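Morning - zinc ion inputs below, output right after.
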Amino acid sequence: MTEIEPLSEADAANEMMRLAKAIAHHNRLYHADDSPEISDADYDALVRRNNALEEAFPHLIRADSPNKLVGAAVEASPLAKVTHAQRMMSLDNAFADDDVAEFVARVRRFLNLPEEAAVGLTAEDKIDGLSCSLRYEQGVLVQAATRGDGSVGEDVTPNVRTISDIPEKLAGDAPDVFEIRGEIYMAKADFAALNAAQQKAEAKVFANPRNAAAGSLRQKDASVTAARPLRFLAHGWGEVSAVPAANQYDMMRLIESWGVPVSPLLGRFDSVADVLAHYRAIETRRAELPYDIDGVVYKVDRLDWQARLGFVAKAPRWAIAHKFPAERAQTTLEAIDIQVGRTGKLTPVGRLTPVTVGGVVVSNVTLHNRDEIGRLGVRPGDRVVVQRAGDVIPQVVENLTRDEARDPYVFPDHCPVCGSEAVAAEGEVDVRCTGGLICGAQKFERLRHFVSRGALDIEGLGEKSIAEFLELGWLDKGPADVFRLHEHRDELLAREGWKEKSVDNLFAAIEAKRQPDAARLLFGLGIRHVGAVTARDLLKRLVTLPALRMAVEQMNEMYRLEDGTRIPAPANYFEIDGVGTAVNEALRDFFHEPHNRALWDDLLSEVSPPPFVVETRASEVSGMTVVFTGKLETMSRDEAKAQAEALGAKAAGSVSAKTDLVVAGPGAGSKLKQAAALGIRVIDEADWAAIVAAAG
Ligand SMILES: [Zn+2]
């Protein structure tokens, strides 16, 4: 069992409630709808976590504990219900070799056997199919039922009669009543062919062979089942009128002799080491087996011991399923597509020849970014190893075609959505579209930012309206179009949800921003690294937006080679605290893109921001130079600087003879010592807040 971290009872109870709901939800998707939305490995992780919690907090076990239910209830099924004569059990899981050793030790303890006593075990591959119980009376098939919730399943007798692996009559001398239990499954090759045919017919494509088998079997019309290539492997029995052998292995061989298929990999072993060796051998052959398996099942061989061991909750004490770790598979990377996110990030997505990994068909993988493609050295056409592990998003873990000599994949330098230049800033792995407000992929997010409270602050122009206007094509040219919305007044009034008053209010709110604050407008453009504070800092120095643009273009002129290649400008080019290389380069990128220059001109033809002035209030610190040091607890460093400015003070980065005041938070070090040495007044954050409050 997995250890769990220290946890309060309330938290544990909460988590167990959430797990019960989540597991029930995924059970339903898996068993009733045949359309799982998480991987088996993730599902197992939920179950394991729940089991660990139930072990640590046994008094909190819920009435609807996942361990008290098997599979999914069958109420939604169109098929008739069948009550099983003997409950269909499920199996406990082992994930590590130690779990298997512990299982055998538990069996010994329960049976009170000495430690050296051999416990004979059968081992067979655990096929990933649909459990089914076949009832034979006088050797003739009379009923077939799915597992359902373990107690009540669905009657699939006519469907099962169409499966060629399942004999109508048992060969040889079977007891009067004998229920054979096993898995109905679809072979990998048959699954691929079925899905191809379904796709061609534009019918439902199945997620994996197990779901295809379930969907094919649970049909009201058995002729549909007959047309599907279903198979069967027996692994046990239910109600029987006689038990004709003394152990599991011999029973399975008898069933096989009656004409019912049994796994060719079934073996009998006397030690943990031997079953584990068999497990490894099966694991090695897993990929080449004609059907999907997800582990190996061990059962105590002696039937008298099985009877003594009995059951706990829903599972037998005498059997355990040893699951395989996350599966990997090989396939071909057919293409690399570039997706542009809402923030302009270009994400490469690998398109694969569909392949089943961990029971799920995978046809797309994320390749994360340009560096990841470089690390893997992948190009379209390569053979790759795909893995589905703890997370649901599959990934490429290895490139089998790797060849250092050939030309690498060239990551696009233009946005596939809008055609603007796409660049990675110095030291960053992500390549971003510089199109911003004109990029279709980013428009919505950018416009939302443009009108948001920190930027233009246009009341009444919310997400819903932006989405609506974008849809209508009224904001195609970007933010300048916001100021031309009034041209659509009549059309807007004709639309549902818009009344004269709301339209007038919206247009009035927009008109009120024809002379916006220049710093807010600059911030609203969403240029990377140009936040609200940086926008103010830039405009304090450059005063107007045209002056800012001219300064950036001048920088471009000065810092480029003769062939036009850009070289970095000095970090302190603008001599503004907090404006360094990242901001400089982002501004250069922005104005380098022709789309952005056009957008800028268009916007400034609609609005006229007055020259930027910092409004200050008279205060105790007006005219002083203030230094903030240490950790500030109620505000950010930027906010503190903005406050100082608003009070007519200058915020400086270091303590010198010119410093008038030091505001020190916890952890202030050398600056505090310097201030003491220079005899400068030092106050704390609360004193500072009092000064700000006093200025009104
Ligand atoms: Zn773009």
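Note: The first helix runs from residue 9 to 32.

O.
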